[in-house]
Write a structure and sequence with these properties.
three-stranded antiparallel beta sheet; 10 strands; extended
């Protein structure tokens, strides 16, 4: 009796003072039946395995998911994020770059991936696994662990908010990870689990809550939508094939008894008049009392269905930060200003992910430089105050008009908004290297000019400019210059 009274009081409180978002009725059902809990409880080890399995299956068979993975790899990583040491000693910087370039060819334990491919795997894994582990090995190599290889032995842990075991992440009283549990996947089971100190391990993920220690797959909110889209496409395709294949049906007068139960399998009369199987261009012969009625194949594909599919895919793109136009590679229906707005929106999302990847790469850089110093392969000069100072310049979106991009960069440099190093870093280079190559070109030009008796070495570069101008003048639609020398103008006739 007391419980019933209390329930009525709570209901009245919601109506009078509560939020509409917590009230469920016959017209609107508010989901959120569970109280606020730990993120790892919301996605326990068993549910995580199911979710990851569904996503990996979609990665194998769903072209939209495949496109998402490809875009993340190509746009976020591009040609790869290479370090640019920024210490005060240029010779020391060059030594680090030389060691890094050799090590980055095969930086992980399998020897099957270079640094660019490692970065691609790091960016791609959160889509399907929620996170990825990076182990800094004592042998100077990296080892990658998919999120499914991180977890508690026998699937325990992560069911209690006060449990220090957060599904493979062991935390202290302050919630700071102190070690990780990694193992092997055999027949779907996590075995051979070992503890790895947190100082030698990084867990890359997109955090959604402060109290979150395991990542949630980025595509998790899109699973049902993508499945609905795939199922609808399959149904629509079947309907289109049936409509295109079936051109006519046969009508019989009166009742016809096929006696299917009395016919043996393979009997020729077993399929007489039956229309379960269709092939294009098939003829069906009529028997006495039969009539033919044609069937129109109009309405396939369904125009309304196509609009619905576009709307659903826009929702998917909004959830993962990829516009619909990039998701399908379709910008034909957008104006120039609208397409530019889409590009800018997508660029901001890509830059955010690039910054997260840069934070991880700085940790990898500091670990590797420290190991080179510890192994005696690299000596830090005494005048260098911060030997770990480094910059990572991610690739940026390319302009269609390359000359306009160069002009824009130079304007930023002249205004002081950018430096030459900022511009050079977008090409994976430094301003010092560019100036050295330019000086080398000038030196080579002087040497060639002396060899061939050219008085001014600048004529070599002038000739290049002249050739480029001549090639431009030969383009269709260009007007040749009218000669002005040695042209006699006839005298006008006298009146």
């Amino acid at each position: 009796m007391e419980l019933a009274v209390w329930n009525r009081i709570k209901k009245a409180g919601r109506i009078l003072f509560g939020y509409d978002a917590i009230v469920s009725n016959r017209y609107r059902r508010t989901k959120g039946y569970h109280p606020i809990r730990d993120e790892n409880i919301e996605l326990n080890p068993y549910d995580r395995d199911t979710l990851v399995g569904n996503l990996l299956n979609m990665k194998r068979n769903n072209p939209i998911v495949k496109s998402i993975s490809r875009l993340k790899r190509t746009d976020v990583v591009g040609a790869g994020l290479d370090p640019q040491p920024a210490t005060s000693d240029e010779l020391f910087n060059e030594q680090i770059l030389e060691l890094w370039s050799k090590w980055a060819e095969y930086p992980e334990v399998t020897g099957m991936m270079n640094m660019k491919q490692v970065q691609q795997e790091v960016v791609d894994a959160p889509l399907f696994f929620g996170d990825i582990g990076i182990l800094y090995g004592s042998n100077g190599l990296l080892q990658l662990f998919e999120g499914s290889r991180i977890g508690s032995p026998h699937g325990v842990g992560g069911f209690n908010e006060t449990d220090p075991d957060k599904n493979g992440v062991i935390v202290n009283d302050y919630g700071r990870p102190i070690k990780y549990q990694v193992g092997n996947r055999i027949n779907g089971m996590l075995t051979d689990v070992v503890d790895v100190p947190a100082d030698n391990f990084s867990l890359y993920m997109k955090r959604q809550r402060p109290s979150q220690w395991r990542g949630v797959p980025t595509l998790a909110p899109c699973v049902n939508t993508l499945m609905d889209v795939s199922e609808y496409e399959e149904i629509e395709m079947i309907a289109a094939k049936v409509s295109a294949s079936l051109s006519a049906v046969v009508k019989r007068e009166g009742a016809v008894n096929f006696e299917l139960g009395n016919r043996a399998p393979g009997d020729e009369q077993d399929t007489v008049g039956r229309l379960e199987n269709f092939e294009p261009g098939t003829f069906h012969y009529l028997e006495p009392g039969e009539d033919v009625s044609t069937i129109s194949a109009n309405g396939r594909p369904n125009v309304d269905g196509i609009e619905w599919l576009a709307f659903e895919l826009r929702k998917v793109g909004a959830a993962i930060g990829i516009p619909y136009e990039f998701l399908l590679g379709d910008i034909g229906g957008s104006s120039f200003s609208a397409s530019q707005g889409v590009v800018m929106q997508y660029q901001a999302q890509v830059e955010e992910e690039q910054n997260c990847l840069i934070d991880l790469m700085k940790k990898v850089y500091r670990w590797r430089v420290s190991k080179w110093v510890a192994d005696g392969e690299l000596s830090v000069p005494a005048e260098v105050e911060d030997p770990m100072r480094v910059r990572f310049q991610p690739p940026r979106f390319r302009w269609i008009n390359r000359s306009a991009q160069v002009d824009s960069d130079m304007k930023y440099v002249s205004l002081g908004a950018m430096s030459l190093d900022d511009v050079a870093s977008t090409f994976g280079d430094s301003a010092l290297n560019i100036m050295r190559r330019k000086a080398q070109n000038i030196s080579d030009a002087k040497q060639v000019a002396d060899e061939f008796g050219i008085k001014d070495w600048r004529e070599l570069f002038n000739q290049l400019q002249t050739s480029a101008s001549a090639n431009y003048a030969e383009l269709p639609g260009s007007e040749p210059e009218t000669p002005t020398e040695n042209v006699e103008t006839p005298n006008p006739p006298k009146p």
